[in-house]
């Protein structure tokens, strides 16, 4: 297996697992905002995880769902958008950035789930270029990037969609000069095939998910493998697909699977781990990195263990 220096930002060290801020720090600040990413950097989090979709004018923009929903976005008139809202792929960048994404709508299930999330008065969805420019600043040189490409499930030509998305994303990463800190990450194992072909200098991280979804996640609209039967070994399936990192949902993680994955040379990250009991179980399972909406909770768990 080829060795990639980028993986060191996600590999556990003597202090325990690395910490990735999920969509910045979604439990603390609105998701996928520059303020959320800056918060992670300020508290010493090792990496940020964020989502990229393509606008109508083919600009990579940092938004999670394929629709801009009223659970977390308001239009230029200040009113919450519908839920589901307009498709990002049918909006120009100007239209996307004309919306306010600085608050969670407390009248929705998503908003109630993140009721402790602070409000930002005028946050807008950043472009991928914005996030990469932030990461490229000298003071952020230690920040690793877990860049999740979210393929449009309604694309008329999926092969073209994948090719165009990877080309646009890879060009931005190279332009910003952060290749050596970027991991290409996706549920869509097909787009990771394209990423390895177009950007072989960056490792690929394979997301997997077996349980049911959470409110506001739109898991059913995520492009992912549709196996007739789940592979008997997901770590082996990742290696056979060409990946270097496996990122299962935390409910799918066992110590035995982590050991198997490590034996195959994989780095193991897990998502989205928010409760203290779950964080501690992931540490005990030996994962390399923990993606969390509450990175401070993971820091606290690690500090308590170090002091014990």
Question: Brief overview, please?
Answer:
By secondary structure, this protein is of the alpha/beta class. The protein has helices at 34-42, 93-97, 109-113, 128-136, 158-176, 189-198, 234-241, 255-263, 276-285, 295-307, and strands at 18-22, 47-54, 60-61, 144-149, 182-186, 204-208, 245-248, 267-270, 289-292.
> Helix amount, in percent?
25-40%
CATH C-level category: Alpha Beta
Count, helices: 10
CATH architecture: Alpha-Beta Barrel
Strand content: 5-15%
Largest sheet: 8 strands, parallel, barrel
Radius of gyration over C-alpha positions, nearest whole angstrom: 18 Å
Q: How would you describe the shape? A: globular
Domains (count): 1
Question: Could you give the topology of this structure?
Answer:
Layout lengths: L17 E5 L11 H9 L4 E8 L5 E2 L31 H5 L11 H5 L14 H9 L7 E6 L8 H19 L5 E5 L2 H10 L5 E5 L25 H8 L3 E4 L6 H9 L3 E4 L5 H10 L3 E4 L2 H13 L1
Parallel strand pairs: 1-2, 1-9, 2-4, 4-5, 5-6, 6-7, 7-8, 8-9
Antiparallel strand pairs: 2-3
Architecture overview:
This protein is of the alpha/beta class. The chain has one domain: Alpha-Beta Barrel (TIM Barrel). Helix content is 31%, strand content 14%. It has ten helices and nine strands. It has an eight-stranded parallel barrel, surrounded by seven helices. Helix 8 links the parallel strand 7 and strand 8. Helix 4 runs parallel beside helix 5, helix 5 packs across helix 6 and helix 9 packs across helix 10. It starts with 17 loop residues before the first strand and ends with a helix. The model has no long low-confidence stretch (mean pLDDT 95).
């Amino acid at each position: 297996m080829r060795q990639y220096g980028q993986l060191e930002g996600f590999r556990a060290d003597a202090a325990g697992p690395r910490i990735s801020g999920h969509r910045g720090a979604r439990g603390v600040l609105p998701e996928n905002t520059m303020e959320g990413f800056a918060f992670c950097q300020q508290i010493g989090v090792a990496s940020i995880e964020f989502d990229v979709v393509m606008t109508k004018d083919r600009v990579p923009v940092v938004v999670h769902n394929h629709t801009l929903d009223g659970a977390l976005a308001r239009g230029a008139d200040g009113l919450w958008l519908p839920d589901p809202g307009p498709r990002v792929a049918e909006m120009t960048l100007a239209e996307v950035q004309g919306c306010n994404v600085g608050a969670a709508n407390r009248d929705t299930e998503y908003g109630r789930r993140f009721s402790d999330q602070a409000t930002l008065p005028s946050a807008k969805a950043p472009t991928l270029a914005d996030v990469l420019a932030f990461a490229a600043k000298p003071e952020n040189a230690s920040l690793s990037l877990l860049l999740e490409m979210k393929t449009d499930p309604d694309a008329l030509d999926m092969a073209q969609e994948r090719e165009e998305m990877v080309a646009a994303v890879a060009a931005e990463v190279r332009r910003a000069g952060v290749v050596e800190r970027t991991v290409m990450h996706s549920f869509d194992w097909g787009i990771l095939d394209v990423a390895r072909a177009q950007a072989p200098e960056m490792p690929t991280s394979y997301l997997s998910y077996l349980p049911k979804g959470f409110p506001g996640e739109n898991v059913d609209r995520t492009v992912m493998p549709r196996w007739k039967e789940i592979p008997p070994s997901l770590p082996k399936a990742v290696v056979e697909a060409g990946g270097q990192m496996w990122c299962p949902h935390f409910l799918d993680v066992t110590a035995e699977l982590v050991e198997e994955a490590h034996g195959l040379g994989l780095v193991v990250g897990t998502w989205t781990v928010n409760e203290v009991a779950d964080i501690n179980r992931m540490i005990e399972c030996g994962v390399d990195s923990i993606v969390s909406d509450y990175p401070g909770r993971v820091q606290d768990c690690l500090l308590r263990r170090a002091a014990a």
